[in-house]
Amino acid sequence: KPIDLKIARTIQAPLDDCKGNRDKNCAGAAKPLAKSEIIKQIAVALERLADIAEQTANDKHHAPVTLEEANAYRWDPDMPGLHPVVNVARVPLDLLKGIDDKREQLLQNSLQFARGHAANNALLWGARGMGKSSLIKALHAEIEASNETGLKRLVLVEINREDLSSLPELMQAIGALEARFIIFCDDLSFDKNETSYKSLKTILDGGLAGRPQNTLFYATSNRRHLMARDMIENERSSAINPSEAVEEKISLSDRFGLWLGFHNCTQDEFLAMVGAYIDYYKIDISTKELNRRAIEWAATRGSRSGRVAIQFVRQIAGERGQDI
Prior knowledge:
Elements: H1 2-22, H2 35-61, E1 72-75, E2 82-84, H3 100-114, E3 122-126, H4 132-144, E4 154-158, H5 167-174, E5 180-185, H6 197-205, E6 215-221, H7 229-238, H8 242-245, H9 247-250, E7 258-262, H10 267-280, H11 287-301, H12 306-319
Parallel strand pairs: 1-4, 3-6, 3-7, 4-5, 5-6
Antiparallel strand pairs: 1-2
Helix pairs in contact: 1-2, 3-4, 10-11, 10-12
C-alpha cells in the first residue's frame, strides 16, 4: 500500500544513513555520525510519521458519503465511507408470521420516522430465529416501496458490533444529509471487559452533540439486557458496590425507547410460517403431508422458529427440483 511504503521509507532513511557512515568497507565512507546527530535524524523521521498519520486520519475523517448506488449500506471504519449492498438478503414483510404485534409496532415507529416525526430507537430481543433482523430489513423494503406522499428517503445502514466505537464518526458522516437513516446492529451483546457500549450509550443518550435528527438505531439481541445473566450475577457478587457494578451496561437497554420481545412460537404458528412460505414459492404439496413433515422436522431440530421453517421449506423445494 502507498502509505506503508511512505512509512517504511521514512523509518529506513536515517537508519541507512547511519549504517553507511559506519561501514568502513564502503568507498569514501564518512566518519561515524555522532549520537546526537542520530537522535536528531530519528526525531525528524518521527515527525514525518506524525504528519503522515494526521493526513491519513483527515482523509478518513472527511471521506465523502454518497447515496446514489443503493438504499442499504454497510459501514466499515477501516475502509471509510458507506459501502452499498445492492442485493439485501430479505423476505417480504407479509411472510413474517407469528410476530404480528411486533411487526405493527416497529412498522409504525419506522413510518413515523420516515414521515419526519418523532420515533424511538428500538431493541428487538429474544429467541433465536424468530425474525428479528428479518423484520428490520423487510419493513425497510416495505417503506421504500410505499407510494405514500411525504415520506423521506429511508436508508438502512448496517454496523457490526465490533465497530460500535466508530459510531460518532458514522453519525458525523451522515448527520447533515437529507435522507433518514436506520442504523442497524445485529446480534448486539457485550462481554465483561468491553467498553464499546459507551459509544452506543452516548448516541442513544444524545451526548453533548446529540443524536442527529435524521438517524434511528435499531438493534437485535438474544439478551434483554445485552449481557448474559451469569455475567451479571458474577459481576454483582464480586463488586465492591454490587448495585452499581453492572448498572451502566444493564441500563443501556433502558435507553431504547421501544422494546420488542420475540419468543418461541407455538406449533400452530410454526405451521402458519411453513404454509406462508409454501404458498409464496408455489410449492406443490398436500396440507396433510406438509404439516406431518413440518412437525417431524421441528422435532428433530428441537425447536420451532421462522429460521427452522424456511430451512424445512428449502428441503421440500429441493426435493421437487425447485430453487427458492
